[in-house]
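Morning!

This is the sequence you dropped in the shared folder:
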Amino acid sequence: MSENTTHRLPVLDPDEQPAPPPEKSSGRFWSARRVPAALVALCLIGGAGLLLYDVAAVRAGHPAMYWRRELARQLAEQRVDAIPVLAGAAFVAAVGLWLLLLALTPGLRRLLPMSRPHPDVRAALRREAAAVLLRDRAMDISGVREAHVRVGRRKADVKVVSHFREPEEVREDLDTTLDGAVRELGLSRPPKLSVRVRRPGKKG
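The structure's back. Tokens below.
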């Protein structure tokens, strides 16, 4: 005689449900910078091709191009501390530093990285869109007549004009409402709020 055994799964209390995995930051988005890369590539290809052509012509028995002979003469006659030499060196150094800056910085400063609920998902929010959302939330508060919002990478600057309510009361409502709105944006690094409230006709 066989016995039927029933296994019952344990029921978890809602308060004991496993917590979702923590969200990870997507990091800043890197710009492709196709225009600077294309310009540098074209300059290098053009200069290398012209130099190789001149070297091949000299090896074939033809005289070197005028520009190369003139450049060699100028380099032989010019002093290292001459103003044209220093100016040219400064220009080349500035261009080199600019290219290094482009290579080492992400760019796309108008995009705010969002949290990553899944490792394969990356998303970003434009600063203008975040500013519009915060401005709409500010305008929904009673007593707000005008609202100007500027969102940066680390700070959200909110300037509000209030009319029939006390500025302190409007400021308290703004702090509460906008704090929640910033969290709802889902940014990996929420900007710090800076709220200023003034009366009409006063500069703040």
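Headline: Residues 1-23 have pLDDT under 50 and may be disordered.

More detail when I'm at my desk.
O.
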